[in-house]
Amino acid sequence: MASAFYSEDLTCAVCLTIFTDPVTLPCGHSFCRACLTAVLSSQHQCPQCRTDVPTEAKCLPTSHILKSIAEKAKEAATMTADRGHAKAEVAELCPEHEEKLKLFCVTDQQLACIICRDGEKHEGHKFKPIKEAAASLRQELGKGMENLCGYILAAESQANTQREEMIKTKEKSQQLKTQIHRQFEEMHQFLRKREDEIKNELKHKEEDAVEKMSETLNAIETALSESRELQGKVASVLEITDSERFLKSWTEGNSRMTPAHLLRPRANNLQVVKSSLSLGPHESHLQFFMWKEMLRVVQPRAELLSLRSESTDITVSDDGRSLFGTRKSNQAEAGFVFPRDQPRKSSQIYSSGVFGQAAHSPFSGFGQNAASFSFGNGPYPEQQKNNSSSSTNNAFSVSKFTSGQHYWEIDVGHRDYWELGIKDNFLKYDSQKYAACSANITTKLAFGDKPRKIGIYLNCSSEKLSFYDADNMTHIHTLGFKLKSMPLSAYVNIRSRASDPNPLTVCWY
Q1: What are the Cα distances from residue 75, in Å, to 68, 69, 78, 83, 426?
Q2: How many CB atoms lie within 10 A of CB 29?
Q3: Under DSSP, is residue 20 helix (H, G, I), strand (E, B) or coil?
Q4: C-alpha distance from residue 91 to each of 106, 113, 454, 499 (Å)
Q5: Residues 43, 408: Cα–Cα separation, whole Å
Q6: Which residues pair with 15 in a beta bridge?
Q7: Concatenated DSSP letters for 262-316?
Q8: Which end of the chain is more exposed for a tag (fewer CB within 10 A), N or C?
Q9: CA angle, 34 then 55 then 30, to 5°
Q10: Percentages of the chain per state (helix, strand, coil), in multiples of 5
Q11: Each residue of 252-273: b (16+ CB within 10 Å) or e?
C-alpha cells in the first residue's frame, strides 16, 4: 500500500528507486546514502534544491523511519509481482478442466487440453500439437504479412487517386460555373432565372458526385486503417518466440477466424469513383440552347446556304434550302453537296464544326468551317421494301468532326422514314416508331411525340451522341459510343420516292 500511495515520497531523486539506507539533508530532502555520497564528491549542493551542504553533512545518520517505510514498500511490490506470476501460471491451464494446454484446435482456432479434445464441444474438430500448430500459423502469418504490405500500398494508391478525382470534380465544377455566369451575362436580365436553374443543376450534380466519392474514400480509408491495425497486431504476435504464448496471443479476441479470413484484402472490392461531371450541351452550346428557348424575345437572322444536286433522284428547291426525293430511275443513288467554294445565295448555314460561322450569327463561336453534305449510297442501306416506288439513300457530311462538341438540326417534316446521327450511331424513325441504333445494337424507344425538327448534339470527348426535339429542346435519347476512327461525319438516311411532297431540310439560323 505504501508503494502504491507514497511511491513518489519514497523515491530517491538521484537513482529514481525506493530509498536504500536513506539520509536527510538539513534542507529536508532525503536521498540514498550511496547516491548522496556520489553527488557530494563533485559538488556541495543538494541535488534537488541546490542548497549548499556543509562538509559535516557527509556523516549524516540514517533516517530509520524512512528506511522502515521503504523496506515495507519493497516487500509489497515483491508480493504483487509474485501474485502476477501465479496468475499467469494458472492462466496457462485449461480454465474448464485445469489441465495443461497441450493442443491447438484448428477448427475453433484456440488452445485446448487433452480432455477438451475428447469432449462433446470439440467433437469432430481438427487438432494439432502446440508446436506444430505454432509453426504452421507462423508460416501462414509470415506470408500474409507480405501480402498485407501490398494491400496497404494498393489502398493508399486508391485513396490518393480518389482525392485527386474529388479535386478535379470541384475544379471542373468551378470552371463550369464561371463559364455559365459569363455566358448568361451576355443574354441580359431575362436569362437570370435560367442561369440560377442551371447552376443549381450543376450544384446537385457536383454534390452527388462528391458524395459518392466521399463514401468510397471513407470506405477505402476504413479498410486502410483496419489493415494497418491488423499489420501492427500480426507484427506484435510474430515477435513472440514461445509457441504457447504465440498461439495464445493470436487467439485472444480472434473470434475463431483463420488467418486466411482475417488477412483477406480489405480494399479489393473497392473501386475509385471517376468524375463524370457534365452539363451536356449546356457546357458548349448554352447560349444557343437558351436562344432556342427564347424565340419570343430573340429574333435571329436566318442565314441560307446554297445547295446543288448531282442526282436525278434529288431535287433542290429554288431558294437552295429544301431537298425532295424525286426518284426517276431504278437506282437508289442520289446526292447533294454543300460546296465550300461555290458562290452562295447571300447566306450560310452554321453549327459547331458542321455549319460555318456566319458574319451576323446570333450564336457566333459555334464553328469555323462551312459544311457540305453529299448524298449517295452509304455503308448503311436500310432494308428495301418490296415497292419499286421507294428506296433508301445514305448521306454523310463532307466536313469532319475531330474533337470538341458539335450541334446541328435537321427539319424532317412529315417524312415517314429517316435516320440521323453519325456513322454507326444514329436515331431511326420508321412509321411512328423510334429506335436508337449503335453498331449492331438496336434499342426501341418509347417516345410518343413526332418532332418536326431533330437536334443532334455530339460530344467527342465524352463519346456521347444526344438527340432532341429541336422545337422545345426535349431530350429524346443519348447514345454512348466508342471512337474507332477519326474524323467523324454526320450521317443521314432517307427514302427517295417517285412523288415526295415532304422535304428534308437542314435548318438555317
Answers
A1: 11, 10, 5, 12, 94
A2: 16
A3: coil
A4: 20, 13, 83, 102
A5: 98
A6: none
A7: HTS-SSTT--PPPP----THHHHSHHHHHHHHTTTT--PPP-----EE--TTEEE
A8: N
A9: 40
A10: 35, 20, 45
A11: eeeeeeebeebbebbbeebebb
Residue type at position 197: E
Place of cell 540514498: 32
pLDDT digits (tens, 9 = 90+) for 354-412: 333 333 333 333 333 333 444 433 444 344 444 434 445 555 666 677 888 888 888 98
C-alpha cell, 2: 505504501
Helix or strand holding residue 411 (H, E): strand 405-411
Cβ-contact 128, 274 below 8 angstroms:
no
**Confidence check: pLDDT of 88 > 60:** no
- Give the contacts of 274 (CB within 8 A, at least 6 positions apart): 165
What is residue 327's three-state secondary structure? coil
User: Rounded distance, CA 316 to CA 334, Å?
Assistant: 12
Nearest to 506 by CA among 403, 379, 383, 418: 418
Per-residue pLDDT of 76-85, as tens digits, reads 888 877 666 5
Phi–psi pair at 497, nearest 5 degrees: -125, 160
Report which of 486, 172, 479, 256 is spatially closest to residue 353, judged by C-alpha positions.
Answer: 486
What are 413's three cell numbers? 417534316
- Give tens-digit pLDDT for 286-305: 878 877 787 666 543 433 43
CB contact at 8 A, 266 and 154: no
Q: How far is residue 327's CA from residue 392's CA, in Å, rounded to a whole number?
A: 11
Cell of 238: 510474430
Residues in the chain: 509
8 Å CB contact between 178 and 199 = no
Q: Taking Cα atoms as reference points, which of 264, 81, 228 lies closest to residue 236?
A: 228
Looking at the chain, the number of H-run helices and the number of E-run strands are 10, 21
